[in-house]
Amino acid sequence: MVDKITKKERGILMGKIRSKNTGIEKQIKKILWKKGLRYRKNNTKLYGKPDLSNQSKKIIIFIDSCFWHGCPKHLRVPEKNKKYWLNKIAKNQERDKSVNKYYKNRKWKLFRIWEHDLKNQKRLEEKINNIIENQN
Fold first, then answer.
1. Three-state secondary-structure class, residue 59
2. Helix, strand, or coil (residue 103)
C-alpha cells in the first residue's frame, strides 16, 4: 500500500507522538487520584521509568499503547518499512518482559494497563480497583 502522505509530513506526524502525559495516561491518573492513590510520574530513578509509581507501597504502573507495545489484539503494523516496525515493537516487548521480571524479583506490585482497556469501562474499573486494593 502506498503511503498517502509525504515523508516530510509523516515525520511531522511521528514527531507529535508523546511519550509522557499522553491522553490515556491523563485518564488513568485522574481516576487513581480520585480513588486516593498518590503517585510519582515518570520516575527516572526507577528501572524502566514507569509511568506511575508509589515507592512506599511498592506499586508500579505502566500504561501501554496498543501500537508501541504490540498488543496482540489491536496491533496493525504499517506496510511501509514493515521490518523496521516489527523490530522496534519486538524490542519494546523484550524490554517490557525485562522490566516485569525485575520488579517481580523485588516483590513490587506491577500493573500494566493497555490503551484498549480505556474502551472497556468495566475492565478498566476492575484493574484500577485491583491497584487500589494492593496499595495497603
1. strand
2. helix
Q: 114 — alpha (psi -120 to 50), left (phi > 0) or beta?
A: beta
**Taking the alpha carbons of 115, 123, 126, 93 in that order, is the dihedral positive or negative?**
negative
Q: Is 109 helix (H, G, I), strand (E, B) or coil?
A: strand
pTM to 2 decimal places: 0.77
55-89 pLDDT, tens digit each: 999 999 998 888 888 998 888 888 888 899 899 99
Helix pair 121-133, 23-34: axis angle to 10 deg: 50
CATH of the domain at 107: 3.40.960.10
- Is there a domain that residue 84 lies in? yes
